[in-house]
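Protein folds are increasingly written down as discrete tokens. With that in mind, we are printing a sequence and the tokens encoding its fold.
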Amino acid sequence: MKRKQFLTFIGIALTSLILAVGLAFISSSVVAQSNTELLVSAAASLKDVMEEIKTDYQKTKPNVNIKYNFGASGALLQQIQQGAPVDMFISAGKKQIDTLEQSGQLVAATRGILAKNRLVLIVPQNATGVSSFNNLKDAKIKKIAIGEPRSVPAGQYAEEALKKLGIYESIKPKFVYANNVRQVLAAVESGNADAGLVYQTDAKISNKVKVVVAADEKYHSPIVYPLAVLKRTKNLQPAKDFLQFLSSEQAKTVLQKYGFILP
């Protein structure tokens, strides 16, 4: 009798141990699945709006950690081409996304347009006597900040617009080139440049600059923010979920709050 009770006890103990090990394994798997990290490379002009969107998103998906890498779209593209472990890319121009699509690096059916923007001429808040692009030729305007056209879409749009306006060659010696559009904004804010060309959303977040005029959209390529999930992602479904959230009414409200134009 005692032997039978002992064997029963051993059986219960072994069953409990196996169950505990199994639950621990399941628990660790759940934790691993529930703490997902997404790396999103995004154009520098999106910094403020994307940070707010991230806060909103993580209220509903607290176990998904969104990490941003902000910079010039051309530089971000180069990082991706060199193997950066990026899950999603949001560019400030279609050229960069086109390059990735043509080389087969995008997940099918994930490419879309996040938003649109406008190109504006800004000067320091206390500046006077500048009311049009033509004033950039004036002797008192000594430095004009623009993004480096080869890597910064805002610089490309600025170059296109100034050429269409017929003033590019005459003011080119005044150019101060920046690595991204936020550096253009900072140069004008600090007075290190007398004028600059940025997006209207950049001007909107600063109380140190004022908008002189917006460039006519016919003078430059459409300013759009294409986005897509990259095939290299190891978190395909979470990336798709975040992509879907970016087109939600909640995200659209935040985009409009910061001055972006809905596609």
Observations:
- The chain is about 45% helix and 20% strand.
